[in-house]
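Have a close read of the entry that follows and walk me through the local backbone shapes. See right below:
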Amino acid sequence: MKKKLFLQLVLAASLLFSSVSYAAEATSTKDIPVGGSGQMEMVGTVEPTILSVTMPTFVPFNISSSLSTQNKVISPRISMKNNSNVPVRIDVTYTKVDLSKLKNVSWSDTGTVNSNQIAIGLKQEETKDEMPKTLTQARWLKANQKQDMNVLILDSNQEDALYVVGTMGDGVSDNGTFNVTPTFVVSRTSSAE
């Protein structure tokens, strides 16, 4: 009798656990016989896909060897605002440089110049509304070639600023013009870094 009662308890316990296990599996998978039909519940999440960043489309700047600071450029503050509800990164992917109006002048991609070179870059604002005097942590624009350079990361609804910075060799004339046209790309990022 004890043996029979023990077997009934073991059988009852195994049925209890197997039915709980079966119930958990039934919510995630379902067998549908050939010729039968069934329904599947699908749950999706909507994530924002519209990225909006405000930035200027034209930035004039002056470069002069007469400036006493390491940075020889005077530029306006380039304000950039992320209007999105997600963090974004702003990269420069290409920079078109036209030095045709400057005789015997070449471009430096590194910020180090010889007597007949110019280097232009971008630098994140360190002190609000104050033009940087040094070239430390400047991001240098590469002339007429593909570039993957991050210049700014903005959290949702955040505003920050960049300045144009640069230097030139002593053989470059102060009387001339040239064009620098960077291509900015805005993309979503996981978080402000």
Remarks:
- Confidence is low (pLDDT under 50) at residues 1-26.
- Helices lie at 2-26.
